[in-house]
Amino acid sequence: MNWFFPRPMGLKFFLAFILFLLVQLFWPMLVFAPTHTPQFSSKVVVIDAGHGGEDPGTIHGSIYEKDINLAVALRLEKILLAQDVQVVMTRRTDIDYIVHRRLRGEKTRKQSDLDRRLEIANEHGADLLISLHVNCWRKYQAGAEVFYNPQSDRSALLAQWIQQELRQIPGMTKRIAKAGDYYLIIQADMPAVIVEMGYLSSPKERQLLLTPTYQEQLAQAIAAGIVRYLREGETQFPNPDV
Q1: In degrees rounded to 5, what are phi and psi of residue 140?
Q2: Domain presence at residue 98
Q3: How many domains does the chain divide into?
Q4: pLDDT by residue (tens digit) across 26-64?
Q5: What is the pTM of this model?
Q6: What's the CATH number where 182 sits?
């Protein structure tokens, strides 16, 4: 029997059989092939690496909070960009926005710095504002914690979801999201949170905060909370609210 050169009468059936095999082989790939949909391409997230420039933030020896904040912020930016989120950084280098001229009224130089960060968020039509910081207290204090505007249910939900992700980091102290009376998140026109990523005063956590692997874990956790909010958050609120 000649399998390679079928008779003319059987050629039609032979070709039909080959076509059937090809369809069976490639159809699942065509139907179930993943498609890349930029579902977050219209979303703008402002990442604020706290402090910077002449404002070092918390200090322990030669370790400055501002440097840790920026290191994690840059990692977070990369992760969110991979999710098609539009990302705006308040700083990418060691700078601040402190106004050095004479300020009127009760505004402090620190407030002038924070006001500029808020302006950046407003100028870019930010959907979310994420400010990264490192805490300092007693040696036994440890763990990341997220603060939100107590007047904003959206901020509270965002904080809770980021906190849930941070709690999944191995060895992380299980803290909860808290309302905070912080100028940046109170004055923000969009859902805003402050993420205190750990305690520089804790010997163990201090070493972790300096480790690229741990910084990546922090960035991944924060990003997961942000992405969940972008995907599900607005469905929780039928009425407009900050």
Answers
A1: -85, -5
A2: yes
A3: 1
A4: 444 443 344 444 677 899 999 999 999 999 999 999 999
A5: 0.82
A6: 3.40.630.40
